[in-house]
Amino acid sequence: MDILSLFVAVPVITILALVFSKGLKQARLIAMVGSFVQLGMAINLVFAYFKERVVNNDIMVFTKDLVWFKQFNIHYSIGVDGISVALLVLTSIVVLAGVFISWKMKDLPKEFFVSLIVLSTGVYGFFISIDLFTMFVFYEIAVIPMYLLIGIWGSGPKEYSAMKLTLMLMGASAVLLIGILGIYFNSNADGGPLTFNILEIAQVNIPVEAQKLFFPLTFIGFAVIGALFPFHTWSPDGHASAPTAVSMLHAGVLMKLGGYGVFRVAMFLLPEGTLHWSWFFIILSAIGVIYGAFAAIKQTDLKYINAYSSVSHLGMVLFALLMLNKTAWNGAILQSLSHGFMTALFFALIGMIYQRTNTRDITKLGGLLKVIPFISVIYVIAGLASLGLPGFSGFVAEMNIFVGAFQHDDMFYRVATIISVSAIVVTAVYVLRVVGIMLMGPVKNNDFLELPKATWFEKTGILLLLIPIVWIGVAPLWLSDMILASLEPFIKGVL
Predict the structure, then answer these.
(1) Measured between alpha carbons, how far is 218 from 213 in angstroms, rounded to an integer?
(2) Quick check: 217 and 281 in contact, CB under 8 A?
(3) Which residues contact 155 (CB under 8 A, 6 or more apart)?
(4) pLDDT tens per residue, range 4-17
(5) Looking at the predicted structure, is the pLDDT value of residue 492 above 70?
(6) Which of 13, 43, 438, 446 is most exposed by smallest CB count within 10 Å?
(7) Helix or strand run (H / E) with residue 228
């Protein structure tokens, strides 16, 4: 079996093993082993990718093509570039960390881990697909388990949150499907057969009017899962009700499908539509960046704070993509990776705090640094990374975004950039506010004077997420070089 198909096959084998498992111990052991194998595959893929690039200059490497539905020219077509490889590594790390954080899951553990691995299977398949129809199928596989994961294992108004998330994402999927079919039925503009293959469509001169029509549909279809303002409202409620590991995958991995789809499909295949509509979506993205940051300040629930922070940070990804230059695009991909690790780490820590205190309300917490020092110190580090402190991944990503965005001579772009840059200050306010209220000062509740320390499996999950945040911040060039090399075809196609 080829190196990429394993990213679908191994999770499927893990799911089958989980189905026949008995009890919590077997279920979590199988989930852990399967996730470790996926991480090993992702690391191996990085080395294999660099080795392959020495002799192969194609847009995508490790490509494989099998006919699926011949009548409609639908293929199981897969391949990766540096961007896909980086996102596959992100997914494998967050999934493994999520398994460790869910180590003590007692309610239907087998079914929980099955749903979690199904979600990850869809994400893996999405990132390796270069056939639009196959990509859409994997997209739906990734989204559908969210309803069960929140509706069954969630807390609070979980049924409402699960239904809201599902309806909004399914609505976006319907819009996306129209956009994909629009691209498909215009893919023979140069006289060839209709095709769903991204690389083949990129060689076709799709009529400008068709691009202007289908670009906003495709962009919105993908960007809704990336928390595009004003279609972001499903995200905070979904985060707040989801169990810890699901929040980690939801924010750390699932929401990355939005920016990746926008970049890989909408912008690459519809360049004229991108140029025509970019100003409109830049405004929405800039509003999302500022709105998410200010909304986070007003929250007292830890999960809502992190959820609105995600709206702001992912708005920055879309904003950078729409700047249409190499530096900003590099920043957008780095921001996707950085945010994935940071937000998964935040939700892991929030879950640990909630498990010990039974509250996520920061006004009821205080002095936790004295009681659970390890968890508290890591929370401070994650906060510093989130606000863009040098030495962490957030700084590298945001510097690329703002430098790239400010390269435009047009006043509109520069004003939008200045507005978005101001979100950094707001981010510092809500991060330091939470640290001051929740971690510093006296302990407000005597019941919190003796809280359980972090366990080995919690520390393992935390370190899996913390190491990449520091690594990218200290030594980003290898990753940046891998991403920049993969941006050349997009630069030529869009500009």
Answers:
(1) 9
(2) no
(3) 241, 243
(4) 889 889 999 999 99
(5) no
(6) 446
(7) none
CA gap 95, 145 in Å, rounded: 14
276 Cβ contact list (under 8 Å, min separation 6): 211, 212, 215
State what percent of residues in the chain have pLDDT above 90. Answer: 13
Measured CA to CA, the distance from residue 179 to residue 254 in angstroms comes to 20
- Read off φ and ψ for residue 325, nearest 5 degrees: -140, 160
Alpha-carbon span 289 to 388, nearest angstrom: 14
- What number of other Cβ atoms are within 10 A of residue 104's Cβ? 12
Quote the DSSP letter at residue 70.
G
| pLDDT tens track for 404-429 | 888 877 788 888 888 888 888 888 88
pLDDT single digits (tens) 389-405: 888 888 888 888 888 88
Rounded-to-integer distance, Cα 445 and Cα 448, Å: 5
Q: Please choose, from the candidates 230, 288, 219, the residue with its C-alpha nearest in 3D space to the C-alpha of residue 258.
A: 219
Cα Rg, the chain, nearest whole Å: 22
Task: List the Cα angle 143/494/45 in 5-degree steps.
Answer: 50
- In this structure, the chain runs to a length of 495
- Is the bond preceding 442 in cis, omega lying within 30 degrees of 0? no
47: CB partners within 8 A, 6+ apart: none
